[in-house]
Amino acid sequence: MKYLEDRKYVIQAIFIIVATIYALKLFYIQVIDNKYKLAAENNAIQKNIQYPFRGLIYDRDGRLLVQNMPVYDLMIVPKEAKNPDTLHFCKVFNIPVDEFREKIKAAKAYSWVKPSPFLTRLSTQEFAAIQEYLTDFPGFFINARTVRGYTHQSLAHALGYIGEISPAKLEKPEYAGYLPGDYLGISGIESEYEKYLMGKRGVKYKMVNVRGIDKGPFRDGEYDTLSVAGENLVSTIDLELQQYGEKLMKGKIGSVVAIEPATGEILAYVSAPGYDPSLLTGKEFGRNYTKLQRDSLKTLFNRPIMATYPPGSIFKLVQALIAMQDGIITPNTGFPCNQNLIKCSHGHEAPTNLRIAIKHSCNPYFYQVFRNEINQGKSRNIFVDSRIGLDHWREQVLSFGFGDKLGIDLPNEKKGIIASTKLYNKYYGENRWKFSNFYSVSIGQGELGTTPLQMANLMAIMANRGFYYTPHIIRSVGENGKPLAKYSKKHYTSVDQKHFEPVIDGMEDVVARGTGSFAKLAHVGITVLGKTGTSENPHGDDHAVFVAFAPRENPKIAIAVYIENAGFGAISSAPLAGLMIEKYLTDTISAPRKRWEEWVLAGKFKPKKKR
Amino acid sequence: MALIRSSKLRQSLDWPTVFIYFLMVGLGWLNVYAAVYSPDNVINIFSWDINSGKQLAWIGTSVILIIVVLVIDYKAYDSLAYIIYGAMILLLLATLILANPIKGSRSWLELGAVRLQPAEFAKFATALAVSKFLSSVNLRQQNWQDHAKLVALTLLPPFIILLQNETGSALVFGAFLLAYFREGMSPLILIVGTVAVALFISTLLFPKLYLVIVITVGLGLWLWANQRILMRKWPLILMIYGASIGMIFSVDFFVNNVLQEHQQNRIKALISPEADPRGFGWNVTQSKIAIGSGGFMGKGFLEGTQTKFDFVPEQSTDFIFCTIGEEHGWVGSVIVIGLFVLLLTRIVKIAERQKSVFGRTYGYCVASIIFFHFLVNIGMTIGLAPVVGIPLPFFSYGGSSLWSFTTLLFILLALDANRKQDLTR
């Protein structure tokens, strides 16, 4: 019997082993594994985000550019919305039955007890129409929030729009604070200044039971936080000038960028064709967006910073400045207008000095300037000499803000292209190219690409005689905030101040007596200094370009006007730039200029290939 | 006479067990209150409207029950064992006929305001009967008639209970194997049983081919090391091997064709509750979340969110351990587990000091039944056992189960208190 008595140890051992296993398993799920704590919080503690008001945006004179407007989301809690009367529902909310079923399915897939949006962005009118029927549908309720609203139809490309965060972004660590369905700035200022505009979200924790029924605040609101409204932004845009620019560009394709040279502040930022920014708010967002996206004119394309064109004749200004800085020419250097070197279609007086050459945009003159710039005889080998020359030249061109992003506070800015050793090595092979391979760069064609913004910035450099501030579209964060520090830094070009006046002399002649005379504002006492250009377009009619700044002393505005497929800058872009300058400087259009206003508005420019 | 007996009883009663009992019942009562507590509608713990108030009534009546059990002449339990057993069988049959189905189960008898579950009381009745039977036969003797009688005695109540559709309560009777083991049953039965359960669960968890390979290679290695056994017992080994492989390939058939759907789901929930956390996996998932969220020290009395807001089903009855785990954390859980180990080892100690085979066997039956409940109830809340609806002794809300366990335990204490008189009998 003794051995049977020993079995009591076996039996007690079984008790203790089971108890030990349980204690260990409990230690694992209670102390080591955190997933149950998270799951418990998800279960019982509902986190309600309190969305703050998004910051407003004002123009430089305090006019409201972007505000908030109320919209209403119809939310659903599938568990409470058992068996709604489908037909009645579809009639009230005016949606097809299939869509209704699909949305119900999606909501159930998301969560049985948590609310999810069913119909979003209902307007105040739509909300009023359905409000009385809401009681017929348990499990549905209205969640009010705001969308962006506009008091004008301007500046859509720069303002950008907000939209639901994409699943791809949600997975990135920098968007960790966002939840599915959250809105954020997707383009333009809305995106660039998201962190200021969004404000600080508040959180309210409340406890819910298994049926999702509210059981009061969690720990009496100990962990709740209040939302803080987003910061308002003050833009550099002059809404009146902006709207005038958009009016003038109506029916055309292109860009107008105007900058205040003394600050780098962007006064007008026109991308044509434009669109009404309110199209991308509200319930019709999806439909409108698709429509704009499929538009053959590429309406959504943000031309001032994303379109790159060969700078054309305007680039001759840069060529002259660099050549003077390097001592290749002086203001009095003359070259023959040798049409054997390069075609020059203007029959004009002999370019016996730089001023005349600029006035007439003489191609052979700048061919010879650039040739001497590139081949300075630093090496006996013509290929090596060309490379040394090009590298030295390029470095200086870059100091004008070309070939790289200027750093405007808008997303997706393009760098542009400036001819480089790297590029030609790729084309021709190392030491297998020389000046003759890229002589067209001398007149702004060939391996050059610049954005309208960069060209407007070039005018700011001319106006400032050698430096620029990074062009920007937001002056300050907060209505009384200080100007943003990063935009108060002067960027100097490689060219000394003294070399600018001779070039500006040439620009004065361009408007006073040359190709830019349709921008002339002498009758109201304003000296406009400008340069026409034509961007060669292999796909169709050339693009008309005119850049200018005014007045000559203490300049207030620098501007670049691009009109695609309008041919010669002198008859389209130049008068438009003149109108913009006059509008900005005098606040009105003088009677003699009304004719040009009508001409530009009509937009019947006769394309004519000229250089 | 009664006075003498009561003073004697006071001296000879096993007070540690009584103390553990009241501690468990008291803690159970507080946790029943915590389980039904609702912060936005606080009801007094004594209120008859909630389970804690009712449980207090059950505890009060249990005290009366204890006095009755202790006052009755201890010899009656021995001499009336078969009669009590027979009466209980009749009651089970009567219940089968009279009961109104509740959630598919025909196991509840309604007596006015109270509902009783006779299946609960069948446990102590069967424990008495099998103890009585074992005190008259010797299990080690290979008398197949005795074995058959014992099997019949043990399996008749669970058979009727199965007919009532109370699978969980029926399974409890398997616990008697542990008591029989102490009384001389071959350990092979326990080992084979354990191995079969382990193999069953492994088959559900792992690919069949792997299991076949593991068993074949393992057995091969073992036989290679013990070649003498192979020589002597090769037919048996071949049989065991064949049975194991056969089991591996018949588990699917068993699960899919023999078990009812809700039973299949419970097995699926044990293996992968994630597969359908809102369906069959709900209980296990929510129960683990509640316990797991308790952390080391717990959220504090009445501070649990999972159990309060109805995420855990049956929280005051079968899932009472979730409240303990959530509000008192690992420390509280281990204290409860420790109390059970203390109680079980104390019962074994009591059983071993009985002079009669009847008393000893009964003691082991008590330990086995409580252990089985402990094993399955806590196991299911932490995902180590399938969800079988049986209560946690002394903790779970419910009159039938509290009365039943009280009777079960205090009959043993009554026998123990009088064990010295057995000598003089």
UniProtKB/TrEMBL annotation, chain A:
Residues 254-577 form the Penicillin-binding protein transpeptidase domain. It holds the Pfam family PBP_dimer. Residues 51-212 form the Penicillin-binding protein dimerisation domain. It is found in: Cell membrane; Membrane. GO terms for molecular function: serine-type D-Ala-D-Ala carboxypeptidase activity. Its main location: membrane. The chain crosses the membrane at residues 9-28. It is a single-pass membrane protein. Its EC number is 3.4.16.4. Keywords: Carboxypeptidase, Cell inner membrane, Cell membrane, Cell shape, Cell wall biogenesis/degradation, Hydrolase, Membrane, Peptidoglycan synthesis, Protease, Transmembrane, Transmembrane helix. It comes from the Bacteria. The keyword Magnesium does not apply. It is an enzyme of class 3 (hydrolase). PANTHER family: PEPTIDOGLYCAN D,D-TRANSPEPTIDASE, PEPTIDOGLYCAN D,D-TRANSPEPTIDASE MRDA. This is Penicillin-binding protein 2.
From TrEMBL, chain B:
It is found in: Membrane. The keyword Hydrolase does not apply. It holds the Pfam family FTSW_RODA_SPOVE. It is a multi-pass membrane protein. The keyword Nucleus does not apply. The chain crosses the membrane at residues 18-36, 56-74, 80-100, 159-180, 187-203, 209-225, 237-255, 330-349, 361-388, 394-415. InterPro entries: Cell_cycle_FtsW-rel_CS, FtsW/RodA, RodA/MrdB. Keywords: Cell membrane, Cell shape, Cell wall biogenesis/degradation, Glycosyltransferase, Membrane, Peptidoglycan synthesis, Transferase, Transmembrane, Transmembrane helix. PANTHER family: CELL CYCLE PROTEIN (PTHR30474), PEPTIDOGLYCAN GLYCOSYLTRANSFERASE MRDB (PTHR30474:SF1). This is Cell wall polymerase. It comes from Adhaeribacter terrigena.
